[in-house]
Amino acid sequence: MRKAKTAHQMGFNIERLPKELQGQFRALYDINGNGSPEYYLAPNDIYCGDARDLLQLVEPNSIALSVWSPPYFVGKEYEAHLTFDDWQKLLATVIQSHFPIIKPGGFLVINIADILVFKDPAMPRIQAEVMHRKRSSVTKEDVLGAMAEHPEYNRNQLAALLGCSEQTVDRRLNGNNIRGGKYEAQTRVKVVGGLVEQWALDAGFYTYDRRIWVKDAAWENSRWHSLSYRAVDEFEYLYFFWKPGITKYDRTRLLPNEWEAWGSRGVWRFPSVRANNDHEAKFPVALPLRVIRLLTDVDDTVLDCFMGSGTTAVAAIREGRKYIGIELEKKYASLARHNIAAEKNQLCLLTLKS
Length: 354
Ligand SMILES: C[S@@+](CC[C@H](N)C(=O)[O-])C[C@H]1O[C@@H](n2cnc3c(N)ncnc32)[C@H](O)[C@@H]1O
Description:
It is elongated, with a radius of gyration of 27 Å. The strands form four sheets. Strands 3-14-13-4-5-11-10-12 form an eight-stranded mixed beta sheet. Strands 1-2 form a two-stranded antiparallel ribbon. A two-stranded antiparallel sheet has the order 6-9. It has two domains: 41-119 and 188-353, Vaccinia Virus protein VP39 (Rossmann fold), CATH 3.40.50.150; 131-175, Arc Repressor Mutant, subunit A (Orthogonal Bundle). The chain has eleven helices and 14 strands. It has helices at 19-29, 51-54, 84-98, 140-149, 155-162, 166-174, 193-203, 256-263, 286-295, 311-318, 330-353; strands spanning 2-3, 39-40, 45-48, 63-68, 102-112, 115-120, 127-128, 177-178, 186-190, 206-214, 235-242, 267-269, 301-304, 322-327. The two termini are 35 Å apart. By secondary structure, the protein is of the alpha/beta class. S-adenosylmethionine binds next to strand 14.
């Protein structure tokens, strides 16, 4: 940990701004108020703990970019203990805690997806009439006709008379298949963009941009695609939030062909991580790498407070940026340190060869 810098030491001369802007900017830049810790987390390290606690120890106005992918509330091992309410509070608090630590003019970029199987006990049951699975030509009218003719017949006898199964008789009389079983809560899509945006606006950020990452189509995860009209899971969002302040625009951060291929494009396409053998939900290094290249300069500090396997730190190192990583689970913090060491070794080897 290291001692806090004052706003003046950070090189902001607020007195040079027009008088009418000075008050507004002083509030943004000069935020070392009472209650700030005397020491802050040093860059280029991974800290194991809860993001809600450790973000309080990040130096105010020191982070050029924070880019992360939180728990998505989709039942992964590391989020299984959270209720939907807990999950919302976690994200709202984490976003709120970012405002003081992002540099004025800097960015918070959140990679997240809608919740595609969101349990909603209030939702009426979906009646799925699965046409391609209808094997018997017996109709409801046939069953009712047979019942009128033989009121004394039970289901079994009706089925024998009509030449179908007892289950078919039951289905024709009582309606069709009920998706997910008769007693399970129904599931619907929960769109999360509006929630995330509101938490960011409440914290003081402004929505700056939104992009889509087209990933591998997760056919095996989509429990419904053969039984409904819903699309398979194949894209995620990147929401860019801006903290008011001076933002540097530098077109030389990317090559002209990179601007054309992805810098100015709203849809990014690159494959998902296929071997999730050491962490359940890694994003590909291309994701933080692009955001880092677009929004930061060499030596800027990049934060990821849901660091997982260390992907953001690896991208930061590759691009000559500093990083701060926060991760709750010890096993993932160790994995991140391991992946960071491997990246540094790789860079050393490349430097030696060149
Ligand atoms: C979607 S994963 C991030 C994966 C990461 N982007 C990568 O490529 O490896 C979310 C991570 O947040 C961690 N996590 C969950 N709750 C946390 C909390 N309260 N504070 C810090 N980390 C947390 C989980 O252990 C998990 O590793």
